[in-house]
Amino acid sequence: MSWDDARAALLLGVIVVNAVAALPGFPGLRRANFDHPSARDELGRISAVGADWGIEFDPDTLADALYTAADTHRRARAAVLRPLRPWFVYTGTGQSWGLFTYPDRFPSRLVVQGRTADGPWERLFVAHDSNTAFDEGAFTYRRVRAVYDGHADRSDRTWERFCTWAALRVFVARPDVVEVRVSTLELHTREPGEANAAVVEGVERGVQLRSRR
To answer: Which end of the chain is more exposed for a tag (fewer CB within 10 A), N or C?
Structure first.
C-alpha cells in the first residue's frame, strides 16, 4: 500500500467516525418527552400529513414507534462510539449538539412583576415587550438568558436562584416594591392560514415569589 492509499484510508476513517458522531444522540431520551406540548403538537401535524397520504395513525401510536426507533438508534450509536472515546478526547472533537433542530412553536417569555404594599401586581419586565423593559440590559444579556432559558418548566435550583437574583435587582432599584413575582409565559405560535392563527394563548409556568422581608 502506498502512502497516498494509507492517507486516503485514514481520512476516510476520520470522516466515517465523525459522521457517526454527528448523528443525533438523544441523550436522556424518555417516553415522557413525547408528551410535552411541543412534541404533541408536532405529532399531531405529522399524523395530519399521514392522513393526507392515506396513512392513518394516531399520535400515541406514532410516539411509541418514534421512541422505540430513537432508543434503538441511541443504543447502537453509543455502542459504535464507545471504543472511540480516547480519539475524541485526544483530538478535542467530542462535542456534538443540535442547534435549532426544529422550530419551537411553544416559546416562553420571561415575566418579572412587582407590587407595592397596597398596590396590584405590575409587570416590570416582559421579554420582547418594549412597554415593560425594566433592567432590560441585564435580563436579555445572552449569558443571563442561558441561565433561565428552559429551566422554568422544571423548577430546579437554577431557576430558583435566578428568581432570587432577579428579585434582588428589583428590590435595589425599586424601594417601594415589597414583593416580586417571576415566571415564564408559554405561548403557542401558529403558521399563517392555520386555524385560530390570530389567537395566542399564554400558560404561566415556574411561578416564584420573593418578599423583601
So the answer is: C
